[in-house]
Amino acid sequence: MCIKQTIVYPLLYCIVVFLIIPQGALCQTSISTLWKARALESADRLKDLQARLNKVSKSDWNSKAASKLRCEVMLETAYALHVTSEETVHKTDNQLDFFHIMLSGGKEAGLFDIMYIYSSKGELLGTRIDMLPKDWQLIFLAPIIGKMQILLPKGSCLFQFNLEDPFANTVLE
Q1: Sign of the CA dihedral running 57, 62, 65, 69
Q2: Measured between alpha carbons, how far is 74 from 135 in angstroms, rounded to an integer?
Q3: Alpha-carbon Rg of the chain, whole angstroms?
Q4: CA–CA dist 31, 54 (Å, integer)
Q5: Residue 51 class from Cβ within 10 Å (0-12 exposed, 13-18 middle, 19+ buried)?
Q6: Non-local CB neighbours of 156 within 8 Å, separated by 6+ positions
Q7: Which residues fall within 8 angstroms of residue 125, CB to CB, at 6 or more apart?
Q8: Which letter does DSSP use for residue 137 in this model?
Q9: Below-50 pLDDT ranges, the chain
Q10: Which end of the chain is more exposed for a tag (fewer CB within 10 A), N or C?
């Protein structure tokens, strides 16, 4: 009886849910769920990054390694916004979903905003740059298709954004 309940009932539940919920809703939910899962993952990453930053001495604060850690904090914070400020970074309109990754360039420079656009079926349709802070540079290297790099002033950060997979964005330097 116990085995039957643990296997059969969840299976029946999944079948009923699949038959009742429209397919588009399942895809939309899964895209939102993926973004929220990445946001929750960023909370753990931010704790680790903060612990590593706390170990950096004052004399090493301006080193490349410390700078890269600060840039990683920027990127992880942008993902975390999908849990803490979802109304700002996730919009829906006309059966499309828009997911933003926003990085602060400071009060005077402004925001960096890259948006990933999905269909109602959960397909990634494209990306769009909505804002670029003053003195930040967009770099598209010919041999690297489907990716773009963002160089911050004075080379303080080099981000690589994947235009086809928003969860594969990284800090290079």
Answers
A1: positive
A2: 17
A3: 20
A4: 34
A5: exposed
A6: 67, 71
A7: 96, 117, 118, 119
A8: E
A9: 1-28
A10: N
